[in-house]
Fold this sequence. Notes:
Blueprint: E1 6-8, H1 13-23, E2 27-30, H2 36-41, E3 49-52, E4 62-64, E5 71-74, H3 79-84, H4 86-91, H5 93-99, H6 105-110, H7 113-119, H8 126-132, E6 136-141, E7 144-149, H9 150-153, E8 154-156, E9 159-160, E10 166-173, E11 180-187, E12 195-203, E13 210-218, E14 225-226, H10 228-234, H11 239-243, H12 266-292
Parallel strand pairs: 1-3, 2-3
Antiparallel strand pairs: 4-5, 5-10, 6-7, 6-10, 8-9, 11-12, 12-13, 13-14
Amino acid sequence: MLPPFEIHQPATPAEAAAFREQLGETAALYAGGSELILAMKEGLGDFAHLIDVKTIAALHQLGLAADGTTLVVGAAVTHALLERAPLVRERFPLLAEAEGLVGNVRVRAMGTLGGNLCFAEPHSDPPTVLLVHEATVALHGTHGARRVALAEFLVGPYETALRADEVMTQVELQAPPPRSVGAYLKFGMHERPTVGVAVLLARDESSTTVAEARVSVGCVGPVPTRLPALEAQVAGVGLGVLESGWSPAERAGETLDAVSDLHGSADYKRAMAGMFVKRALALAARRTRALAA
Length: 293
């Protein structure tokens, strides 16, 4: 059974931040509850107060920023909405693809992107994809607002840069490079993935060679990570070479800070990361060539 608690329903981010500062460690932010309620049921969180941010209208926005290219996702937007939204499917298809693979139908219907990021579960799909979109999170606290790159916001397993008086208000994704196509692949024997790989490939004007590559790996270590050295290697490689299986990708996991856990040993995860980077590059290359044909 859940312990008794009081629910607070702020109308603005400022009110939510004030509640956090006032109630301190006795309170937790609550949106979809797909992670928080499970933790509380397992006795991993004993909170006397829940701050329900679903009541904040600004946290439900989904659209393009004033620049017409940046996608703005309110922290309370659900995975299911991101999976189905025409804007996301058309302009940010890699995000829509990954969101359709999150958890199960119940989790996607209730869980929110902001909640997912703030919980910082290391075996999670969205952060890996958000990294190749160079995402930034917007935070609001009692002392003002700030923006933090997602790579800096995710500090470690279940640990973020969110301050004690702050709430996340939105996630901002940069538009993919011109002529780019992505792929997201994951593998796992349990409900959560053992490895997840996101790839964005931008082809050159000849449509035969990679002009720019973005590759990130998640679920293997404490936080998802980009692979800049590999990205530099991929630039200039022919799409046909990637599609047929580019062998250097198999070594992609060697530099990862892999962690042994119930999902596999560190060595196993590194090997799987290399295999799935190779497969994701091949899939993205195949999609790129098909789109250019």
